[in-house]
Write a structure and sequence with these properties.
seven-stranded antiparallel beta sheet, 25 strands, eight-stranded antiparallel beta sheet, Beta-galactosidase, Chain A, domain 5, single chain, 48% strand, 282 residues
Length: 282
Amino acid sequence: MFDDAVPLTLSHRGARVDLYPGAGGRIGQITIGDRRLLRGPEHSSRGWGAWGSFPMVPWTNRIPGGVTRFDGATIDVPVNWPDGTAIHGLVGERAWQVVASGARDATLTIEVDIDRYHVRSTQTFSLNGNSLDFDIDLVNLAAWRVPVGIGIHPWFVAAPIRVPAGLIWDGSGPMPEGPPRPVRPDEDLRDKRLAPPMDRCFAGLTESRAEIGDLALSWRGPITQVVVFSGEAGVVCVEPVTMANDGIRLANEGVEGTGVIVLDPGARTTVGYRFAWGGEQP
């Protein structure tokens, strides 16, 4: 059993990745030489959702009030945020089990059984050259269908960003108030720049790669949205995810493009990510 303050460290060619299985299975820090890429564990007093890069399953962003419906059944999950929402899934506050680990590789897994969600998620990490590759796998262990989403929530050290998205969910904050619409000039992040203060969900992705300074963040699998949070000094969050904010409600209302994935009993879905530095291409 890993204490939440004890990292599992991968290292290779001057790069160090500190994983925290006991603290939501997150990447706590990536250090290249003496450079740190993330807001790290020294900021854990801010709360579980405010440091490192943590996985989000079986949904991303918020379920207002922790209650939604699917296939005629009510889904009631714990509210865990001051705004009265259930945010970022069920695994970011829980300890993951270490299945395997080596100098450059690790596999973590977790099983949760809360209300309608009985799922197992597995993360596999590999530190290769100038990049960190990792997959997040999600399996539905329940005897009924469930709506799911997968994503990551990295707290990057602030830098100019590029996000290849031509659409943004309409509204003034993180919760959509209308369908996706074309980005306005003040919202457009397709040319690298410092993001204005925002907490918004982007869609209409034209590439599977974003940039944060000289760091390239790429993805594989059914990623359809990127959430950008730039409301705190010194950090920026660029979050490639499979589903829109409040996507289950939107899908229930017949809105298209939510990205919500429906898993049948025993079915699975997987996404992959790469953090690349030093000029290595995804």
